[in-house]
């Protein structure tokens, strides 16, 4: 029905296939929503119309799901600002709670679920108006778990999962939140292996949607990178020296590594990444001043606008009609396939 397939086109002018890839970053993903909102305001466009596939990890996955739900970036920014306030209260970071946090997550996933319910409601992944890929990690099986909209006949299971459950699974960062339990799987934050989902999206475009690499262009938006300072004593340091910087280090390295592989696959000229580089210690995964974030995003979106016009704005995404488009009318009669979408990892 909506599969993008047929003979792979090659040559000097292949049909374009545009990907929007959104990094994870906790509270800092407010930056992503503001950047997209700034582009829409500046250019009078609807960002989602320009992209054939949207990929998002962790907090970037929440933004991607909201785009799939039909929300505009400005709406997402407002909702995300409220989500950060409700989900990451400063009281949870008080010094007297540190001992308790040695054995329990810092934050309550029920508060996150409530906040997500207010944005995504009862929508299923199959209700998305865009093709989506959302990475997570199955801790029980030690395997990649990627949630996908039903944009291929093989993808016959994930569409029944609620967007809220997908959001909880991709953003269940260890230490910060408990693992998410979805359809019998124990899932944690996709950022542990794909904080930058660009490569995941490229693989999906090639293997499941039959697009040639030379047709693919990627816009990758980060969530603020910090200038790292690693004193020499840390070279031989232990737990005390590494416990604080390890999370941002792993996430940042994962994003840059993903960028490098993606550029190698599609060519540097077909990969665009925008981020804000700031001094270390200003922002955290669970703490970010909304006004500061908005200011950084305004600056970055201003820089991105000419590039977006030049590289992305002229493309109109191909129509997307889900293979299970009549799912809501007949939820109870769907037969579980022998191979689930989690096994179709591109």
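^ Assign residues to that structure.
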């Amino acid at each position: 029905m909506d599969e993008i397939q047929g003979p792979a086109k090659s040559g000097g002018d292949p049909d374009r296939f545009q990907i929007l890839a959104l990094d994870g970053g906790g509270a800092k993903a407010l930056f992503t929503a503001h950047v997209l909102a700034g582009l829409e305001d500046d250019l009078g466009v609807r960002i989602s119309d320009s992209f054939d596939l949207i990929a998002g990890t962790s907090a970037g996955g929440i933004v991607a799901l909201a785009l799939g739900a039909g929300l505009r970036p400005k709406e997402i920014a407002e909702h995300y600002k409220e989500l950060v306030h409700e989900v990451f209260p400063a009281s949870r970071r008080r010094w007297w709670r540190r001992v308790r946090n040695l054995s329990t997550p810092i934050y309550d996933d029920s508060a996150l679920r409530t906040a997500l319910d207010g944005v995504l409601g009862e929508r299923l992944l199959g209700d998305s108006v865009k093709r989506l890929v959302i990475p997570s990690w199955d801790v029980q099986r030690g395997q990649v778990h990627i949630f996908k909209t039903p944009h291929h006949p093989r993808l016959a299971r994930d569409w029944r999962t609620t967007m809220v459950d997908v959001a909880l699974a991709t953003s269940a960062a260890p230490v910060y939140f408990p693992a998410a339990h979805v359809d019998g799987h124990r899932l944690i934050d996709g950022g542990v292996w794909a904080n930058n989902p660009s490569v995941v999206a490229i693989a999906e475009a090639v293997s499941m949607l039959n697009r040639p690499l030379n047709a693919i262009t990627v816009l990758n938006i980060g969530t603020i990178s910090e200038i790292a300072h690693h004193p020499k004593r840390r070279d031989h340091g232990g737990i005390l020296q590494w416990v604080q910087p390890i999370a941002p280090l792993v996430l940042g390295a994962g994003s840059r590594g993903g960028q490098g592989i993606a550029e190698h696959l599609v060519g540097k000229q077909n990969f665009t990444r925008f981020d804000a580089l700031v001094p270390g210690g200003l922002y955290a995964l669970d703490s970010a001043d909304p006004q500061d974030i908005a200011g950084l995003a305004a600056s970055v979106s201003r820089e991105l606008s000419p590039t977006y016009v030049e590289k992305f704005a002229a493309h109109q995404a191909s129509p997307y009609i889900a293979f299970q488009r009549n799912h809501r009318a007949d939820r109870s009669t769907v037969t579980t396939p022998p191979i689930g979408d989690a096994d179709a990892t591109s």
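The CA atoms of residues 28 and 283 lie 8 Å apart.
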